[in-house]
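Chapter review: from sequence to fold.
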Amino acid sequence: MFDAVLLSDLHIGSEFCQARAVLDFLDQLPETNRLVLLGDVLEKTEHHLTKQHWRILSRLRKISDRMEVIWVIGNHDADAESVAHLIGADFVTEFQFESGGKRLLCVHGDAWDSFWRDHPIVTNIVDWLYVNLKRLSRRLARRAKLNSRTFLQCIERVRRGAVEYARAKQADLVICGHTHLAEAKRASSADSPIYFNTGCWTDHTCHYLTVQHGLLDLHEFHPDDAAGCRPSRARLPRAGGYPGRPTSPFVPADDAGRDSAGPAEPGLEDPLASGQELPPGGRDRPQPVCR
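The token string follows.
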């Protein structure tokens, strides 16, 4: 049994929510002590929900009858406390737990995405363009985003801010959502927290994270698989050199920014993001560029 299963950025209510995949995944949910939803579970509380979207909430309500369900607040669902209570989830700004002697910190990650604050007009324009491009092609929109200097800077700010915050909280690992980019980043030093990101459930390939005895595995889930949307349990290489069970061969998806097996990176510094201060938190704000 896992100590925890984590996923984020379902964006229930959005036209891009992979509702069928979410339902399939919840029906096959691995045996675990807790389910952690790392923010942006809803697109917006005022958005119309389809029947499939309501089914997701119903599944989550049933799951909460047999295990602990944690809903970490994201920037899209900061006002969804009543919905969280409806499905039996604890609604929190962050969540910490221990596994295998390791302290894990779970935060959404939007507190370190400062682009929206510095460039609100540009944010709205970019968001509109991205949404319309995504309507044409998810893959094309994702490729354009991963080639965006602004988006890459955003990712680096979230990584760096989360790691610094985890260090201050004396956590061994920090897990975020928000950027929609699944990652396992090696620590820059032995005493530096390791960064994970759970990706999203709005793209062709969705992701979730499992935790067991202090070991973390990032899994892929393919909504378009012909075999009934069954999960592909391809594991990322162990981050930080943690000993663990033998892993299956890693099957890379079309995600950039993942670590592959090999020497640890010299650090999390990026010349594109150098010299920028860590942004403060805050919830009352428009949608950031890391949609």
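Two observations follow directly from the output. The longest helix spans residues 149-168. The longest strand covers residues 206-212.
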